[in-house]
Amino acid sequence: MTDPKSNKQPIYNFGAGPACLPVDVLEQIRDDIPDWYEGMSIMEISHRLPVFMELTQSIEQDLRSLLTIPDEFAVLFMHGGARTQFSAVPLNLLNGSKVADYLVTGHWSDLAYQDAQRYCQPHLVASSKEEHYTKIPEEKEWNFSKQGAYLHYTDNETIHGVEFPHPPKVKDKWLISDMTSNILTKPIDFSSYGLIYASAQKNLGIAGITVVIVRKELLGKEHPFTPPTMSYAFCEKTQSMGNTSPVFCWYVLGLVLKWVKKQGNCETLANACKQKSTLIYDVIDNSNNFYISPVVKEYRSRVNVPFRLPSAELETLFLNEANAIGLKQLKGHKTVGGCRASLYNAMPLEGVEKLAEFMKEFEKTRG
Amino acid sequence: MTDPKSNKQPIYNFGAGPACLPVDVLEQIRDDIPDWYEGMSIMEISHRLPVFMELTQSIEQDLRSLLTIPDEFAVLFMHGGARTQFSAVPLNLLNGSKVADYLVTGHWSDLAYQDAQRYCQPHLVASSKEEHYTKIPEEKEWNFSKQGAYLHYTDNETIHGVEFPHPPKVKDKWLISDMTSNILTKPIDFSSYGLIYASAQKNLGIAGITVVIVRKELLGKEHPFTPPTMSYAFCEKTQSMGNTSPVFCWYVLGLVLKWVKKQGNCETLANACKQKSTLIYDVIDNSNNFYISPVVKEYRSRVNVPFRLPSAELETLFLNEANAIGLKQLKGHKTVGGCRASLYNAMPLEGVEKLAEFMKEFEKTRG
């Protein structure tokens, strides 16, 4: 993302991830090359150097403080993305059980449910697949298993733009949540959670590292086939340094957290998120169905806003014209088409205002 | 690493990995921030954008051309480091067999052997553990299993500085090799290999991505418990984009390969490697045992040169004085202590010459 204060046309990157980074973070990264420590760049630093180990400790502290993570949770920084967690969760947490409960509300929770079939018989608590993932199934229709080791759900579906307005209510089992696209956009009450994971390339930094926040009492019960680098107990024991860490990705995550702290706390971030998404939803709702949000209102995501235009031709025109004025990566995911505006923390209000203005103007001239 | 052409004291980083990057590569990375494509940095680019997919194809082509990789091999770019491959290899390649053969010649091959115990009964072909990993066991003493699915070995042991002078001779099974620390430092005859892997942070770029070169006929026989992100067949089918790729790590790998191509071919690189390591070994061998290389001469590594001084006090002094004049990260791995100079492709000859001079001077004044 270019600096809005520069003379160049500002670029606003609405991609769903890898997503835009704060301008301040990009500038810091640039300034740190080639000399982050004693004439070496951060990319050339051993993960065993005290200066790097201190950095990782401060990163954990920043995340703990921002999210108010209770002491009974470990915070892990693992290789790879959320997809790896789709296997890591059952491998680590089934603990001999042959069943685990899954709520399916979009592409990613469905994939988590499918990947779990490698390790158990996942029990489908509810699915909105038949409604094309435009809602969260009514809680009264949810059908829990008796023996399920946990309940997995995806707090925000990046592709379908469906978000849980509040955590699912569970009894007798821990909630496991993929919060890749909406972590750090609201306060979290950890009391019902066993584990929360989020890959970094949306609200936490860049692709290649995943944060796992896991209740310590759940550690150490993994299946014998669990690769060490996917074992939560191993990662906790080795302070996420059991093998060479993705040093640069971890460092960027740290810079993003420092930037987030400057914005305020999770309440501040939730308000910003609400304000930005409301701007776009208002344009959609006031467009006489020129723009259509496929999602039932109460489940609309505050971070991923998918929308359709009246025809594929108009969508292409919309994307091309938006692109030309610096509103980038607004194309919807290939599985659903259409358009999508991702409004993570790093997206400034001015970018969203510019998109809202452009949408209104486009509707006026082409509607 | 700072530019040797600048006015600052040149910094030479002898770390074993994450290791030094070529100055040109660091400058290119800095120049590409914040605008790599249409006003976005490479860290903010979707892995699905055509411009990124074209980049990854050219990276694969560069690697294929540098190493002369035959068409019957797939080239995969996977999340994480070599440790993940210690599990991925048996998960993907056992193909129902309960045995696989392992040669143990240092810390990493021993860890690969141990991790394999999660998935099979690995058969110890030979080990130099009792000789403190100072040699490769004599081939005539090797004891192969009859049924072993493959033979795993580590072509160069980063910690112990032991390197195979030529590939192990095998019959009736494929060679599987961890070449993390010496890939791209010599030509490879692929005819005996089933699979070669290398994490990037030594000769290929930065931590967070691993290259896997695998014979296509071995794909698709993975254990049902293999996580999709660790399945070679899945990675091949999805062009290593089955989930969000570590975009930045992949891009740096591409820059390093372009830089390597400018240096020449694998023969050129092998010569440079030989020249640099000979400089240091000559200092060691001419020091009247002031410096000691623990490794039997014919198995000395051309990329990792561990050495001892007469006392722990002298080693500390050596490391401190070296550090003060810009010779960085010469400390040996914590498991073995002492000193170690890593001489990967990005380490310029001038750096090695400066180290050799310093070693001679230190010996003269303290010896």
Write structural notes for this entry:
The structure is a homodimer of 367-residue chains. The first copy, chain A, is an alpha/beta fold and 367 residues long. The first copy, chain A, has 2 domains: 29-261, 3-Layer(aba) Sandwich (Aspartate Aminotransferase, domain 2); 265-366, Aspartate Aminotransferase, domain 1 (Alpha-Beta Complex). Chain A has 9 helices and 13 strands. Chain A has helices at 23-31, 50-67, 82-93, 107-116, 232-237, 247-263, 266-285, 312-324, 349-366, and strands at residues 12-13, 73-79, 99-104, 121-127, 150-154, 156-157, 162-163, 174-178, 193-199, 209-215, 304-307, 327-328, 339-342. A 7-stranded mixed beta sheet of chain A has the order 2-10-9-8-5-3-4. In chain A, strands 1-12 form a two-stranded parallel ribbon. In chain A, helix 1 (23-31) packs across helix 6 and helix 7 packs parallel to helix 9. Chain A is globular, with a radius of gyration of 21 Å. Chains A and B meet through helix 1, helix 3 and helix 6 of A and helix 1, helix 3 and helix 6 of B.
